[in-house]
Write a structure and sequence with these properties.
The chain folds into two domains: 94 residues, Winged helix-like DNA-binding domain superfamily/Winged helix DNA-binding domain (Arc Repressor Mutant, subunit A, Orthogonal Bundle); 69 residues, Helix Hairpins, CATH 1.10.287. It has six helices and three strands. It is mainly alpha-helical and 172 residues long. 66% of the residues lie in helices and 6% in strands.
Length: 172
Amino acid sequence: MSSRPQSQRDPDTRRDEEAVRRYIESFALVLIKIGLQRMAARVFAALMVTDSGRLTAAELAERLSVSPAAISGAVRYLEQVGMVAKEREPGERRDHYRLYDDLWYATFQKRDRAMEIWHGTAVEGIEAVGADTPAGRRLAEMADYLEFMIKELPLLFERWHEQHLEREKRAG
């Protein structure tokens, strides 16, 4: 048990909320380093550490000590890249933002489609600049790599699902 006073613990979860806040910021910094926008990273981290994986914009703003406007732009971005979904309960006026079930699979499936588009663009570029030019060779290498990834990713997705199902069976 932590030496923090009980008043800093959430009575429902027995979590040290200050430690959770620090972790959100730490997790967000990692996400920022790999290219996620700052506020989007903080929102995503906050959603990841909630047991429900679901919060309103007001709840996110309160947890992150920011304005609802800051949350609005962040969740719009996270929706566009397929990391969160917006939903509304029947009869409610507030939107809730939630993590997708099987989040990582869904996110990388979107990346798979993006790679197909990127591959097609590389092939068009080879035709435009000529296959025997330095630029054409760079584009061909990119197209080859993307073609390889497009073929291999479905196999990885399949293996992930098998492993995930096995882990869920063992967990009970």
